[in-house]
Design the sequence.
């Protein structure tokens, strides 16, 4: 967007997809919520009611503060752009229509003409019921006494504490709560309601389980857990099952003990949520998690949206959950975010823990995540019979990502012949592999 486009916008009247604001305030956040919940729209900040460009302070610090406020308060990531008009800066915020409801401080807004209005209970109920997918079907007759009321009340407390759902007091009847959250259709509990809060959803959906297997190799099972119950129970118990199959060590920092797991728990929780929230519940295949000595494999049926590929998944993207109602309940509870950032959070957590990069295999049918453990500790490498030069080289590759023959020589103060023999031994043992062009262009990376 450039100066000429902004000047053309200034000639238009505000409507259901356009609004001008003089300053960045809560009114901006409410309108962004309304745009996301209606048709999408454009918010222009730095323009007064007379359509005069007054400008807004968008130095690096303030600009980042505005972005963080929108992301943290609303859970979405619109497109932000600074445009210079008459030597003054204005901020254009382009909002896409959201696939799940977007709230501000626990309240939901909609756009009506050129006004932003808070939804009442009936409007909120209809809003949650807009999309009818498998999760919204209610062809079975689920009874209210099949719902775990403790799970419902616990969810409401968590959502209220997060500031994401404040329309309930907490003591309303289950029917009223479910109705307003889109968990009932025509007075009947839908599939999402049963999966999320049922006492025994497997009575109706036998495949809605998680299997966590501990393997020594591809065929030798040394531990096996089947996780059942509602999705909140599956989320908690699956984490505990994985923790029982991996190692933890302790570090004393100051006067407190810190648990250091083989893999960061933040990444594990995100992977579990990804598997149970985005799976295709119409296909009778359980979520499967395999824990090996050196890796964890997460699998769920239900792949990428039709026009997506892994490149788009790994880039900045809007959230597009397969089961938006179920996903939204987990979002309200504070377990996930709605900004399409789950992959990034896993990647960052693994990187911060010094672990190898997250591996993803995805198509339009299946989705697989792979966490790799850093097995190449100095102690382990010594057990493999590596000499000090080779161990130092492996540590170097772990830090830098690669090493050349010349770098090996400089690192260990050795001859080219010694470096070549050591590197050949490391490749034969499957620790490093040669990449790049043969000769001067060759380098070595972790195999």
Sequence:
């Amino acid at each position: 967007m450039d100066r000429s486009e902004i000047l053309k916008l200034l000639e238009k009247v505000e409507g259901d997809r356009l609004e001008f604001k003089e300053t960045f305030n809560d009114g901006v956040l409410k309108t962004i919520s309304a745009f996301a919940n209606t048709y999408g729209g454009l918010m222009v900040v730095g323009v007064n009611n007379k359509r005069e460009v007054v400008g807004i302070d968008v130095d690096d610090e303030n600009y980042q503060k505005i972005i963080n406020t929108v992301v943290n308060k609303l859970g979405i990531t619109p497109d932000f752009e600074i445009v210079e008009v008459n030597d003054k800066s204005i901020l254009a915020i382009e909002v896409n229509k959201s696939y799940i409801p977007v709230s501000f401080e626990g309240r939901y807004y909609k756009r009506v003409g050129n006004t932003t209005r808070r939804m009442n209970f009936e409007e909120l109920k209809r809003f949650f019921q807009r999309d009818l997918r498998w999760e919204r079907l209610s062809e079975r007759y689920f009874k209210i006494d099949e719902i775990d009321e403790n799970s419902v009340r616990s969810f409401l407390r968590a959502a209220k504490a997060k500031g994401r759902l404040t329309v309930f007091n907490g003591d309303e009847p289950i029917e009223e709560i479910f109705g307003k959250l889109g968990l009932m259709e025509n007075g009947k509990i839908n599939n999402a309601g049963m999966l999320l809060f049922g006492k025994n959803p497997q009575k109706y959906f036998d495949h809605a389980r998680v299997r966590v297997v501990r393997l020594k190799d591809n065929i030798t099972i040394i531990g096996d857990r089947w996780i059942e119950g509602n999705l909140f129970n599956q989320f908690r118990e699956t984490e505990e099952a994985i923790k029982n199959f991996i190692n933890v060590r302790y570090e004393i920092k100051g006067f407190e003990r810190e648990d250091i797991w083989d893999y960061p728990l933040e990444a594990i929780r995100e992977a579990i949520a990804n598997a149970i929230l985005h799976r295709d519940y119409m296909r009778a295949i359980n979520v499967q998690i395999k824990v090996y000595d050196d890796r964890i494999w997460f699998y769920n049926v239900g792949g990428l949206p039709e026009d997506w590929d892994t490149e788009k998944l790994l880039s900045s993207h809007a959230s597009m959950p397969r089961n938006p109602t179920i996903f939204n309940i987990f979002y309200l509870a504070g377990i996930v975010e709605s900004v399409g950032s789950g992959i990034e959070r896993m990647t960052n957590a693994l990187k911060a823990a010094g672990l190898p990069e997250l591996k993803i295999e995805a198509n339009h049918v299946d989705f697989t995540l792979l966490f790799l453990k850093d097995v190449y500790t100095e102690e382990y490498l010594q057990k493999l019979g590596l000499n000090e030069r080779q161990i130092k080289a492996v540590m170097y590759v772990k830090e830098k990502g690669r090493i050349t023959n010349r770098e090996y020589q400089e690192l260990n103060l050795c001859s080219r012949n010694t470096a070549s023999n050591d590197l050949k031994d490391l490749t034969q043992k499957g620790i490093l592999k040669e990449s790049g062009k043969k000769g001067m262009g060759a380098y070595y990376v972790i195999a």
